[in-house]
Amino acid sequence: MIGLERGNMQNILVIGFNTRNVVCSASRAGYTVCSIDAFCDFDLQECAHASTFLECRTVQELHQLGTSQIKAQMAEFGLEFDALVPGSGLETLDHKDFSCPVLASSPDAKQKASDKLYLSKRLEALGIPQPHCYSPKELDAIEYPVMVKPASGGGGILNRVARNRQELLAILEELNSLNPELT
């Protein structure tokens, strides 16, 4: 966990769709780490001091997740948290709503970084090699197979592979039906 100084900080809460990688890293660094995660898989449970389910399964549910609901789940761990680390799906978590520090970039910076097309264009402008990123407006330029991801966010639960234009159009329709903001 880059930038996390040990000092008096001991109890960390990580919350997101899939928190395993962050939880396991913090645990190996010696922190007491709890997690609110959508999967609570075995690997996460081996690394975490304790974990509980994030009761959101869609982006819409995640955007409706209230601070009071998160605070109630935090209280169930019976620990005073020294910091909260928002993971995938909670990149824009409002920092001011929590009594402990939220270890993350500003919501505006996270919004820009999680916008895949914006980030791709910025990396390209800086001369940093990375896979080409297409917008839905560039359907005729796409080379297949292509990895299809929502326009913003992280976690990977909606990622798909399209092997041709027909599959791509079906995936874009699926994402649009889940949430028009995804495409």
Short recap of the structure:
This protein is α/β, with parallel strands linked by helices and 183 residues long. Helix content is 34%, strand content 14%. Strands 3-2-1-4 form a 4-stranded parallel beta sheet. A two-stranded antiparallel ribbon has the order 5-6.
Number of strands: 6
CATH class of the largest domain: Alpha Beta
Radius of gyration from the alpha-carbon trace, in angstroms: 18 Å
Q: Could you spell the SSE succession in H and E letters? A: EHEHEHHEHHEEH
Give the strand line-up of the largest sheet.
3-2-1-4
**Shape verdict:** elongated
- Percentage of residues in helical conformation: 25-40%
Major β-sheet profile? 4 strands, parallel
What number of domains?
Answer: 2
Helix/strand/pairing category: alpha/beta
Q: Number of helical segments? A: 7
CATH fold-type name of the largest domain: Rossmann fold
Average per-residue pLDDT, rounded, comes to 87
Taking pLDDT < 50 over at least 5 consecutive residues as the criterion, the unreliable ranges are none
The CA-CA distance between the termini, in Å, is 31 Å
Under the CATH scheme, the architecture of the largest domain is: 3-Layer(aba) Sandwich
Strand content: 5-15%
